[in-house]
Amino acid sequence: MKQSKLKAILEDHILWLGSDGKQGKCAYLERANLQDAYLQDANLQGANLWGANLQGANLWGANLQRANLHGANLEGANLQRANLDAANLWCANLQRADLESANLWCANLDAANLEGAKFTTNFKKVGWFVCATFSEDQIPWVVLHPKYHVSANNLKWVKARQLSA
Predict the structure, then answer these.
(1) What is the average per-residue pLDDT within 14-42?
(2) Would the pTM of this model clear 0.90, i.e. be above it?
């Protein structure tokens, strides 16, 4: 997607948010190709990003609260300090995504692929992660989650990949 078109969509979305839906338009980016997009500090609260390609995107500090990211490809995306409060990340690809200091409060990570993703104690605030895939090196964080016992039998564990020198 061209940067000019994305900018117009984001401006309409901000107007929509600020007017309680009376002006502008909710960001509809279903299946959009946003690979490597620069969305740092973008406000995508409540946006529809279903199946979007956000591989390698910079979403540092972005507001994705209640956004629909079902099936989105966020492989290698930078989500540091992003607000993913109540975001729908069901079946999302978050391989090697950087989720450090992201707000994951009540986020739905059911069936998400989190292999190699970076996260800290913020993972304890995730709403659900049934059938999610993790790297073995993430076991300490996942086991600390209060809902671990509910999901433990459904989780997929893969060998942690070694970074090539």
Answers:
(1) 97
(2) yes
Which tens digits make up the pLDDT trace of 106-122? 999 999 999 999 988 77
Query: Among 80, 73, 91, which Cα is nearest to 129's?
Result: 91
Among 2.40.50.140, 2.30.42.10, 3.40.50.150, 2.160.20.80, name the CATH number for the domain at 28-159.
2.160.20.80
3-state per-residue secondary structure call for the chain: CCHHHHHHHHHHHHHHHHCCCCCCCCCECCCCECCCCECCCCECCCCECCCCECCCCECCCCECCCCECCCCECCCCECCCCECCCCECCCCECCCCECCCCECCCCECCCCECCCCECCHHHHHCCECCCCEEEHHHHHHHHCCCCHHHHHHHCEEECCCCCCC
